[in-house]
Amino acid sequence: xxxxxxxxxxxxxxxxxxxxxxxxxxxxxxxxxxxxxxxxxxxxxxxxxxxxxxxxxxxxxxxxxxxxxxxxxxxxxxxxxxxxxxxxxxxxxxxxxxxxxxxxxxxxxxxxxxxxxxxxxxxxxxxxxxxxxxxxxxxxxxxxxxxxxxxxxxxxxxxxxxxxxxxxxxxxxxxxxxxxxxxxxxxxxxxxxxxxxxxxxxxxxxxxxxxxxxxxxxxxxxxxxxxxxxxxxxxxxxxxxxxxxxxxxxxxxxxx
Amino acid sequence: xxxxxxxxxxxxxxxxxxxxxxxxxxxxxxxxxxxxxxxxxxxxxxxxxxxxxxxxxxxxxxxxxxxxxxxxxxxxxxxxxxxxxxxxxxxxxxxxxxxxxxxxxxxxxxxxxxxxxxxxxxxxxxxxxxxxxxxxxxxxxxxxxxxxxxxxxxxxxxxxxxxxxxxxxxxxxxxxxxxxxxxxxxxxxxxxxxxxxxxxxxxxxxxxxxxxxxxxxxxxxxxxxxxxxxxxxxxxxxxxxxxxxxxxxxxxxxxxxxxxxxxxxxxxxxxxxxxxxxxxxxxxxxxxxxxxxxxxxxxxxxxxxxxxxxxxxxxxxxxxxxxxxxxxxxxxxxxxxxxxxxxxxxxxxxxxxxxxxxxxxxxxxxxxxxxxxxxxxxxxxxxxxxxxxxxxxxxxxxxxxxxxxxxxxxxxxxxxxxxxxxxxxxxxxxxxxxxxxxxxxxxxxxxxxxxxxxxxxxxxxxxxxxxxxxxxxxxxxxxxxxxxxxxxxxxxxxxx
Lengths: 256, 496
Ligand SMILES: Nc1ncnc2c1ncn2[C@@H]1O[C@H](COP(=O)(O)OP(=O)(O)OP(=O)(O)O)[C@@H](O)[C@H]1O
Ligand SMILES: [Mg+2]
Fold this sequence. Notes:
The complex is a heterodimer of chains A (256) and B (496).
Chain A: E1 5-16, E2 19-31, E3 36-40, H1 47-55, E4 60-69, E5 72-73, H2 79-84, E6 87-90, H3 102-116, H4 124-137, H5 155-169, E7 173-177, H6 185-198, E8 204-208, H7 212-217, E9 222-227, E10 230-235, H8 239-246, H9 249-255
Parallel strand pairs in A: 3-8, 3-9, 6-7, 7-8
Antiparallel strand pairs in A: 1-2, 1-4, 4-5, 9-10
Chain B: H1 3-16, E1 29-31, H2 38-47, H3 52-67, E2 90-92, H4 106-114, H5 119-125, E3 140-146, E4 149-153, H6 156-162, E5 165-168, H7 169-175, H8 177-183, H9 194-202, E6 207-211, E7 220-226, E8 237-242, E9 247-255, E10 262-265, E11 268-273, E12 278-285, E13 297-308, E14 314-321, E15 326-329, E16 332-335, E17 341-350, E18 355-364, E19 370-379, E20 384-393, E21 401-410, E22 416-425, E23 431-440, H10 443-451, H11 456-472, H12 477-492
Parallel strand pairs in B: 3-7, 6-8, 7-9, 8-11, 9-12, 10-13, 11-13, 12-14, 13-15, 13-16, 14-17, 15-18, 16-18, 17-19, 18-20, 19-21, 20-22, 21-23
Antiparallel strand pairs in B: 1-2, 3-4, 5-6
């Protein structure tokens, strides 16, 4: 059966100072439509790399495997085509764009995606109204829209700004790479609610996290454990508690 | 392939065919023989029916020029220019003034159409008088200079009613000789520098603006320069005089056809601001930059200088420089009046093999004079860009202040950006601040934008416009939009 997202035998490497470094070593993962899956795993296991490869970052070279996204060969698409097709990545470390007004950036992005999806572009007034409502729902300070993209934002503000972008871009598939890290308890809940609001039969998500607490608010359908560039274990939402109390040692030992 | 390499290549590839103003117009031309000598100068002066004093002024400038050598201190490289291998006078052949659009040389009309000037204005540009009061767009009075000759000036009636004189300088010489004689060469003397001397000897036209006491000019004034003829040098001379308490905003745009050979452009602009007067001078310079191999393009050697003569006067230069093979240009302010203000806002973009050496000079003479310099330099391809600025504070300039901010943005790793600030302070109480940064458009930034659905070109455009925002916001609204588009075009060539 073809899934919403099908990752099969995905291998990717990076050229680090002239040395080929194998990072993904055969990732298999399928996400059905409407489901939220979580990935947990030790530092450096390749979680962010997987999200970059899915989003189309060019410095990673895919050496084997395939990714099918809603029936399309995802790996053959440009990053902006993937975005237009509905893929969104909330960055682990959001990037600063000095001089670029946040609202202007968001509107340019929203309209680029709307154009590509054959939808009508939003004018400045309509956009600002939507953007203000969405940022309010995330308890963001009103001036965040006027400031330069991520410049001088606190860690938590950056993460909220990622969720704001996700809300406005209306993806069908969102990857959240440690969006919970650096958030205070209230922010954590607000961000989780932001994702929950998007949940529908036509929205799936892959949530990368180190903390079980996020998954209390954002209960996933499945949890996968990633280690050394592979998914080594999968289970239900209860897996989070087990990892929280026991760590990864047992999974690593079993996989070896 | 890393994103940055690809961007660089995309930028380079697209940059080549993106000069959409590169067409040539076939119009009957009146050309002087090649070369510059006393006879050519007499011929120019005679064609313009100039008074004797002006001819003498030109000839003395020519004598001075002959004694001078081309300056070599700028960080630009080009083969020696043969000054005798160019025409110093080229003018569209004049027929008796057209009465309607039908009578105007259709080629000239087509040129304006290609330049994107609306038909309504085309009619005016082509010299057709329109029924008074028929103005669809926000009024901008235009003086169009085609090769060396001013073709037409619009909105003259409206301006005259306000007391503003806006006309070709050749006409001003005839109609307002005392004014021209009083101010011409008082800011940029005939023998100021090699290119200014050349201009003084050989200038053929340009614009003249005079705003009398207490008058705020009722509309933006604009001059449109276009080089068309082959092997011609274009030497316009602009003179703007604003009396006590008066103000004006002046725009300047430029284009030229694509040609294999280089063409010389050596203009002089003089501004005079009296007490409480203010002059805003904005330029969007889009001369042909040459092709991707550095063939052709305009050599732009320009002397622009403003004198803040009166107390509390203000001169503000804003420039967006995207064109020319070589740009050599330092719009300056002489801050003589007490409390006078000089401003310089600049964006200089170079791509392919373009070279730009540009900046400003702020000369603080009077007490409490203030100057602000914001210079943004963007380099792509194998281009090279230098900001060269001088802040000079003379002993009596008590309380003088300067703030300078120079930022460079690099796209790719084969281009260069340099900042050369000179500070000469002879008043210990003066406050001079200088800040400089250099940055690169990073792969991270491009990927982030693309992940949000922007094309690489749009991403570069967004980042570049963000980088230039402090300067672009100084431009008059309509011009700012045009400048933004131009920036994008000169960097990624989004137009096929
Ligand atoms: N550009 C790069 N150059 C060199 N090594 C890299 C590069 N990108 C990733 N790596 C390496 O690949 C491995 C996986 O990195 P990745 O960021 O995917 O881990 P992660 O699972 O997201 O870790 P964390 O939980 O700390 O965020 C790490 O060892 C990292 O150092
Ligand atoms: Mg990570």
